[in-house]
Amino acid sequence: MIKIGQINTLPVTKQTDFGYFLDADDFGSVLLPNKFAPDDIVVGGEVDVMLYFDSDNQLSATTETPIAQVGQWGMMHVVGVNNIGAFVDWGIDKKDLLIPFSNQRVPLHEEQNILVYVYSDSASGRIVGTTKFNKLLDKTPANYEVNQQVELLIAERTDLGFKAIIHGEHWGVIFKSDVFGKLFVGKRLKGYIKAIREDGRINLSLQKIGVAKMDDLSEKVLHVLETKGGFLPLSDKSTPEAIFTVFRTSKGTFKKTIGGLYKQGKIRIEHDGIYLI
């Protein structure tokens, strides 16, 4: 089934002086210009292309990969605003993505970098973007468990911390007290379900909760020590940044973890770092 606004694998049916024609099924033949044709393209073979409608509403093909396909989020740069909305750089040659005014959570301005969701408008068939994420999320009950690992997309900074999109389906919040490392809008990372509140809202953590967190990090510390010859130049005196670079965890959690390993007699802590026993 042909999917407009996404990558499709299409048969190559004909070569001309200006490009290759591809079989787009019910949409007929579509031209892939020479400048986008890969070196190994041959008639009778197949090629992966992005399909979209150009400014003349004609189906076009390109081997360029957009910043986000239909059904995906991506960080995009606002390149212009007119009387129908804002246009963002979609990553496609000579084809910017429209975000109509009705799809803007707040008015957009040129030179902004924003998170955009791309979708195909059911009424017009046009591929457009939106920054109104509330209408896309929390449409189904959140069926998660505490300490479950989830895929996160940082979507917004707030006074409380950061709002993140969970598995592309639900809102969650990472409170300031649970933030470590560098977070920014558009960043994708793994996180954990910290709590599901009575009102259905979800609190998130960037590391496992409680004993599970400590056990997980203990195993990681011992593994890294083994691979590094039994020594790491990290200790409870190291900077949060140095600890995060290696273990992607907070300094507080790291200190508790190596303290537990020390009491168990698995490591020794010296002024220059930790040693495996």
UniProtKB/TrEMBL annotation:
It comes from the Bacteria. It holds the Pfam family WHD_CvfB. GO terms for molecular function: nucleic acid binding. InterPro entries: CvfB_fam, CvfB_S1_st, CvfB_WH, NA-bd_OB-fold, S1_domain, WH-like_DNA-bd_sf. Residues 3-64, 69-132, 145-207 form the S1 motif domain. Belongs to the CvfB family. This is GntR family transcriptional regulator. It comes from Vibrio rumoiensis 1S-45.
